[in-house]
């Protein structure tokens, strides 16, 4: 109620109009190496390190499986394919496509991470 006794409708007092959330200028944050930009770069580095470590673990496991298999089952080392013993075929031929495939996959995933980071920064 007002001082004269008449009731007035409620009014909302607004000190400033909000036009949405603050626009984050990510490119500036990264270039000026602010805390936000630094955190974004650390995130990219962490993602790239995770991809590298996963790729390395997969390659090491794949390359170590064959010697372990030959230690557990020695008759595998005695197998021949086209007159060549299996260990020589694996060491001389099979290893390279495995390494090539792992490298190709690593580069693809690392490029995708960098592309996503670039898209985030440019928005």
What does the model show?
It comes from Rhodococcoides trifolii. The protein has 123 residues and is mainly alpha-helical. The protein has one domain (27-122). The chain has helices spanning 26-31, 35-72, 86-122, and strands spanning 80-81, 84-85. It has a two-stranded antiparallel ribbon with strand order 1-2. The model has no long low-confidence stretch (mean pLDDT 81).
Low-confidence runs of at least 5 consecutive residues: none
- Following the backbone from N to C, one meets helices and strands in this order, namely HHEEH
Query: How many domain units?
Result: 1
The DSSP helix count reads 3
Q: What is the percentage of strand-forming residues?
A: under 5%
User: What gross morphology would you assign?
Assistant: elongated
Provide the gyration radius in Å. 31 Å
Percent of residues in helices: 55-70%
The assembly state of the depicted protein chains is single chain
Structural class computed from helices and strand pairing? mainly alpha
Largest sheet: 2 strands, antiparallel
């Amino acid at each position: 109620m007002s001082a004269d006794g008449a009731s007035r409708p409620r009014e909302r007092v607004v000190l400033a109009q909000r036009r949405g959330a603050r626009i984050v200028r990510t490119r500036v944050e990264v270039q000026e190496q602010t805390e936000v930009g630094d955190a974004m770069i650390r995130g990219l580095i962490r993602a790239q390190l995770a991809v590298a470590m996963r790729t390395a673990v997969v390659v090491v496991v794949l390359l170590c499986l064959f010697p372990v298999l030959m230690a557990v089952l020695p008759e595998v080392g005695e197998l021949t394919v086209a007159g060549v013993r299996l260990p020589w075929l694996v060491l001389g031929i099979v290893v390279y496509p495995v390494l090539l495939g792992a490298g190709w996959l690593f580069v693809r995933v690392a490029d995708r991470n960098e592309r996503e980071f670039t898209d985030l920064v440019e928005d």
